[in-house]
């Protein structure tokens, strides 16, 4: 039963949308949508020769086939992967009540890397090989490795009842699986280059099927996480307050953990390890406005899509016809943003 005290406590929470913030929320939502569309259109004109006008390519059937078959699914896939990482980052930070939490905190990144290394030993191919069977096998191996890592984390933490235990278990599982993956790579030097490509991340081999999978999974995870956002709002007020609101924390925590695993695992399986997007997107939203977790999740998804789309365009554009790994670009941009955020916070504390 919700009491007047609980309602008042919620209204005083910094994570709640008050009426005066609704206009700001709508403006930010529309801005991110417009920016997403603009970046997708811009991405269609960026290729191995740098930027080309879509109007000049419109009359060339070969150029438009390249746009439709390669650039459009890649650009949409980059946005979808960023949205998945932004969503999972917002859920992870709310679940662990830690602004430094990211989608890979439960060990999914290390599990995916180990899965890819194991599959490479079996297939003897590249993580982004053009052969359909090999590509699907490696994608499935990355996803299964990420899910297995989360399962081991839950097993070691004995469920989701204790957030701190779950957090520590994720760190332990991540370190152990990363060590095993490094050992496999060391024993098979022929897969080092392929593993490096996976670790640095790439959107260059995202096709229509991969794009469709990420958009479908992202839509499902978004709907479920928004429906469960009241749990994150309750946890932001404290464990005891959340329980007093009558929320089934254990079941809902498990559902939120599965959302983190599914969204992060899907993105990693399709694009490799791309860092800082899931960590920076929620921070970027919170720096603009305070909102409930439902609003934060939606805005973080859009912000993540914008961040990775921009990074993907820069990775193709900066040194064309060569291409930078998109994970390197996101690390530089995300690291610079978080350093700026830390400097700003330190200056405010000094006042």
From TrEMBL:
CDD domains named in the record: TM_ABC_iron-siderophores_like
MF (Gene Ontology): transmembrane transporter activity
Short name of any one Pfam family annotated for the protein: FecCD
GO biological process, alphabetically ordered: siderophore-iron import into cell
Keyword annotations: Cell membrane, Membrane, Transmembrane, Transmembrane helix, Transport
InterPro entries the UniProt entry points to: ABC_BtuC-like, ABC_transptr_permease_BtuC
Subcellular location: Cell membrane
Highest taxon listed in the record's lineage: Bacteria
Membrane topology recorded in Swiss-Prot or TrEMBL: Multi-pass membrane protein
Keyword Transport: yes
GO cellular component: plasma membrane
Positions of transmembrane segments: 25-51, 104-124, 136-157, 163-184, 205-232, 252-281, 293-318, 324-342
Record-stated family: Belongs to the binding-protein-dependent transport system permease family. FecCD subfamily.
Protein name: Iron ABC transporter permease
């Amino acid at each position: 039963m919700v009491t007047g005290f609980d309602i008042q406590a919620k209204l005083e929470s910094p994570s709640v949308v008050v009426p005066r913030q609704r206009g700001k929320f709508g403006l930010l939502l529309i801005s991110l949508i417009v920016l997403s569309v603009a970046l997708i259109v811009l991405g269609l004109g960026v290729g191995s020769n740098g930027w080309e006008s879509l109007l000049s390519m419109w009359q060339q059937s070969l150029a438009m086939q390249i746009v439709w078959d390669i650039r459009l699914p890649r650009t949409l896939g980059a946005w979808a992967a960023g949205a998945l990482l932004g969503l999972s980052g917002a859920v992870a930070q709310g679940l662990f009540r830690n602004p430094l939490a990211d989608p890979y905190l439960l060990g999914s990144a290390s599990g995916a890397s180990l899965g890819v290394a194991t599959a490479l030993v079996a297939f003897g191919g590249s993580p982004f090989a053009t052969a359909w069977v090999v590509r699907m096998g490696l994608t499935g191996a990355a996803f299964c490795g990420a899910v297995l890592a989360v399962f081991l984390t839950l097993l070691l933490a004995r469920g989701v009842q204790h957030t701190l235990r779950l957090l520590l278990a994720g760190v332990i599982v991540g370190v152990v699986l990363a060590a095993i993956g490094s050992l496999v790579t060391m024993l098979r030097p022929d897969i080092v280059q392929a593993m490096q490509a996976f670790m640095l991340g790439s959107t260059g081999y995202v096709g229509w099927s991969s794009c469709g999978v990420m958009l479908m999974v992202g839509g499902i995870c978004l709907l479920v996480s928004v429906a469960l956002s009241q749990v994150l709002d309750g946890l932001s007020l404290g464990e005891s307050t959340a329980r007093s609101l009558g929320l089934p924390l254990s079941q809902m925590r498990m559902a939120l953990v599965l959302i983190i695993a599914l969204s992060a695992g899907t993105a990693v399986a399709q694009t490799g390890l791309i860092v800082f997007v899931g960590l920076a997107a929620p921070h970027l939203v919170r720096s603009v406005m305070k909102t409930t977790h439902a609003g934060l999740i939606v805005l973080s998804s859009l912000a993540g899509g914008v961040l990775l789309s921009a990074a993907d365009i820069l990775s193709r554009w900066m040194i064309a016809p060569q291409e930078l790994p998109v994970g390197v670009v996101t690390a530089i941009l995300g690291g610079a943003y978080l350093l700026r955020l830390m400097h700003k916070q330190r200056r405010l504390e000094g006042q």
